[in-house]
Recover the amino acids of this structure.
DNA sequence: AGGCACAGCTTTGCATGCATTGCAAGGTTG
DNA sequence: CAACCTTGCAATGCATGCAAAGCTGTGCCT
């Protein structure tokens, strides 16, 4: 059995990956119309594969599509951010509950080791993007222990949507000299007791704590960088 | 002010809606390759809008795309069904928790009334599709009380994916002469106490009870209707 | 007999083009 | 002067066509 040409990525998938990264890093202004011709030129492809990729983003909620008018970057209202954080709570709490039942001590050791190893970098890191990657890695690793591909992919999509917000939040958190490492270690500790419910509640408290701050961070960040016309939707 | 042409649905959205319905009702055999030319002819459109719609389904996980080989109906392994049910638990439990806090008594009255009104139809209905619609309506109404659009859309996608399985399950449930109405009413009753945690646990128990039976139902249904080549993925 | 290679046919991948529609600027009228 | 209509441009919507890649069936070789 040959590996086929899995390596020869097709244009649509390549464009999709680029667009998703652009969307996650807010290369498009919220509410802004996306010009297909210009974007296809910028990406070195034609409009057909670009539109196919954009339709994937529509299904994922990164982009809105209005018949006859085209594609628009989806605005992130404060309400929607709250909804996304609640969805995140739903998925991560269930994932950690499952993970508590499934995970072997060695799995938890591995995650805790990763936390310890990144702790120094966490303290000294000045790049908020990297900060966010470290934080996100913990949550994704933990969710992976649930061994549920659906939960993992749902969570990955949510993280892509709130990444901008979380970056702003973590930047402010670090500015206060604190880190999330010890909070993460506490969650692992609860998981070791084998009480899935308690672990789930610990995760809930952790995320909702950040949601509070994120709501404030986004207000500042939005004012700073963009002027999102409060989408009437 | 004209209504614009919001009513004039564009071809891509129309095709997408049809495809999603076809996918939910398993008009494509699991693992089967989707022939673009034939399908576009059948739908009365050309391949371009069809491919755009298919790319939305790719993002939602209904369809797999392999570069150079085309689109394939995604197979539903037993493992994946379990994962989807767990994802459903995650979302519905959080939604019911939020709903318990938000919902006014009148909201719960409305849902309970709908349950009572459909109870007779539930008992006498012989169409499993209709049976499933009634059951699904309750869960979606309840989730809507969370007032979280993200949770609602995630749940709708999951329901579309497991609809076939649930239809088989509910058919068998009804054959035993029982219904889910009283289970649903019990969940509402717990919500009235205002204890979100308890309501969440009641919902969890309800779904996981059905998940047990669904796993068995799918084994039978798969054997009956399709011969899904256990996708090596 | 089994497997490999090649040829042809089918299907996908994507660029292009044209019709249609939205959008905006300028002109006209009350 | 403001509101409405008109007209031109630009961008979308989608069908089509061609090149490239996959699939299949046949015949040859081992």
């Amino acid at each position: 059995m040959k590996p086929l040409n899995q390596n020869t990525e097709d244009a649509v998938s390549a464009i999709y990956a680029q667009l998703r990264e652009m969307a996650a890093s807010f290369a498009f202004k919220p509410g802004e119309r996306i010009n297909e011709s210009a974007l296809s030129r910028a990406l070195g492809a034609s409009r057909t594969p670009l539109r196919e990729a954009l339709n994937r983003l529509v299904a994922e909620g990164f982009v809105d599509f209005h018949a006859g008018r085209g594609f628009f970057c989806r605005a992130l209202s404060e309400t929607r951010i709250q909804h996304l954080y609640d969805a995140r709570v739903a998925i991560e709490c269930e994932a950690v509950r499952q993970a508590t039942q499934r995970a072997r001590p060695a799995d938890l050791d591995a995650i805790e080791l990763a936390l310890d190893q990144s702790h120094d970098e966490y303290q000294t890191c000045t790049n908020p993007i990297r900060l966010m990657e470290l934080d996100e890695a913990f949550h994704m690793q933990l969710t992976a222990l649930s061994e549920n591909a659906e939960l993992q992919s749902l969570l990955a999509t949510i993280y892509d949507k709130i990444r901008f917000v979380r970056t702003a939040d973590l930047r402010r958190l670090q500015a206060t000299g604190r880190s999330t490492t010890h909070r993460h270690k506490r969650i692992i500790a609860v998981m070791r007791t084998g009480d899935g419910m308690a672990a789930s509640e610990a995760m809930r408290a952790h995320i909702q704590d950040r949601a509070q701050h994120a709501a404030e961070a986004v207000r500042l960040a939005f004012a700073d960088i963009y002027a999102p016309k409060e989408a009437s939707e």
User: Anything to note?
Assistant: Strands of chain A lie at 33-34, 63-66, 70-73.
